[in-house]
Structure formats: structure tokens, C-alpha cells
Write a structure and sequence with these properties.
Order of helices and strands: EHEHEHEEEHEH
Helix content: 25-40%
Distance between the termini: 32 Å
Number of helices: 5
Oligomer: single chain
């Protein structure tokens, strides 16, 4: 028998993960990021940029998770990354670059909190943040396309990170 929201008994858990969204401005993507961050028990979701749409279009996809996910809206992703780096966060950029490594080969542990940086829907993570990152990870893909939707990529990354944190 298929479970419903009311009969599923997943264990609630929070992980020391902050998701930093650098100029993610598509309202349905923002709503879906709230859902993914709730599903994976992240600590904080930070939207960075000037035009972050948190209205009705966003809530259509968030399904009220914006009410339970700890989030902030700030101007500069670079300033957030610099501050978290000072606080000893492991800075992980989700991006395909010449020196990125496959996500599944990246090692995540409970020794320090993690800041997962995701980038603009069209341009990805900025070069300035890539330079500050401790790890640049990409998702191996096997089709003709070399990119995927920012929410799908974030969900895959959060799955891999939380899976590793649960094991250790």
C-alpha cells in the first residue's frame, strides 16, 4: 500500500548544510528549492541577489515549506561565502569546470559545516566564488546535455551530501 503524507514516518533530522543561491531568480525554482531544502533537512537557505520573487508564483511550488525552512535574502553571495569561510564552513560549489570533480567522488563529513553554492540559472556560480571554494563538484551526466535544472542539480547534491553525512 502506498503511504501518504500522514502515514509516512520519516525521521526528522537537520544537517549542518547551508544552501547559498547566487542570483537564482525564477519563482518556481525558488519554491522548489524550499521543498528540496525541507526534504533534506538543511539548516539554512540563503537567496542572494536583488530581485528574489517570494510571492504567489513561488508559493505555488513551495507547498508551504517556506514557513518551515530557515531562510534569508541578502544582496551578495560573495559576502556570504566570505563570512562562512571565516566561520570554517567547507565551501562547495556545484558547477562544471575544468577542475571540478564528480560529486560522488567528493568527500563530505560531519567535521565542519557545509555551504553548498548553487548558481544563476543561466550563468552558474561566479568565478569569484569558484576561486574561494574548497570543492567544486559536478554531477556526471550521460546524455547529450551538459547541464540540468538548478533545482534538480541541488536535489541530487543534497542527496549525496546527506547520504555521506548519515554514514559517518
Amino acid at each position: 500500500m502506498q503511504h501518504t503524507h500522514y502515514t509516512s514516518n520519516f525521521k526528522q533530522q537537520q544537517f549542518p548544510i547551508t544552501v547559498i543561491c547566487e542570483n537564482v531568480t525564477n519563482a518556481p525554482n525558488i519554491g522548489s528549492l524550499f521543498r528540496a531544502c525541507d526534504a533534506f533537512g538543511i539548516e539554512t537557505l540563503i537567496f542572494c541577489g536583488s530581485d528574489i520573487p517570494l510571492g504567489r508564483k513561488m508559493t505555488k511550488t513551495s507547498r508551504a515549506t517556506e514557513k518551515v525552512v530557515n531562510y534569508q535574502v541578502v544582496d551578495s553571495a560573495l559576502e556570504v561565502v566570505l563570512q562562512l569561510k571565516k566561520e570554517n564552513y567547507a565551501i562547495v560549489a556545484l558547477e562544471i569546470t575544468t577542475n571540478s570533480q564528480p560529486l560522488h567522488e567528493s568527500v563530505f563529513n560531519n567535521n565542519q559545516p557545509i555551504a553548498l553554492v548553487i548558481g544563476d540559472e543561466n550563468f552558474g556560480v561566479s568565478e569569484a566564488i569558484l576561486q574561494l571554494s574548497d570543492t567544486i563538484a559536478h554531477i556526471d551526466m550521460f546524455g547529450q546535455n551538459s547541464s540540468m535544472n538548478v533545482v534538480q542539480a541541488t536535489s541530487i547534491a543534497l542527496y549525496e551530501i546527506t547520504k555521506q553525512l548519515l554514514i559517518k
